[in-house]
Structure prediction request, 279 residues.
Amino acid sequence: MGFVTFEKICESINHSSKTKNKREKLFDESTSAITIISAKDNELLYINEKAQRTLMPNLPFKKGIKCYEYFHNASFPCAECNMMDKNKIGKTSEVYYEKRKMHAKVQIAETTWEGKDALIEYLTDITQEKKLEIEKNRVLNLNNRLNMIIDNLPEGITVYEYTEDDKLIPIRISKSYSKMMGKTYEESLEQIKENAFFDMHPDDSKLMKRALFKIDKSKDYVLNKVIRYYNSKLNRYKYIQVHCLGIPNYDGEFNFLISHIDIDEKYRNEIELKRAQKI
Prediction:
């Protein structure tokens, strides 16, 4: 089956050297449904094999039948007929056919068929493309809502892809994480792209690398630690409670989701209390 464009179909109708059999052979090679009706009285003049299989697989085409009789088993023309809508002639539109659960791209043009003024409809099934588009928009909206939730959590959130060569590639960081580090979102993202452990105290960074790398990536992984992170605004390290969840994905990838809770004041008070109790 070849790919035959709407323009080529229209050109073949207007090309006087094309015989009826050659034209219909070309039409039947099209992957789109082609319907031709009389512009005067809605007589169905021609449908190609694709239209027959897609739209009316159980009803053979009969010469002289009206399009509304054939397609809709009706006695009168449709009130909102796409083909008779002058505003749609020469344009491309999208139509949803509820009965067939089908999305279609429709192109309509004026033509002449066997000496009669006619209208040709070129209908391309785009149901799968529409489903993919709807799913893509659903996921996008879900991601937008998820990002909004993450950005408004009091905890700082970072999400990384853990690669086979033991690298952490940031997938998502929350604005609350950046604020916790005393930086702008852009600054934090740029720095952890270079080094996921950028804000950590060097000693804690070594401990985290030993804890995270070389793990069994076929299983879930949980880690809880208190880590010192550098706050640029305060110009000192703060104690942060880190909860790390490692999750293997179905596609073989492995992600780390890490939440950060600022416990600096509480933790320092506990240290001071312990020191005082020793005196």
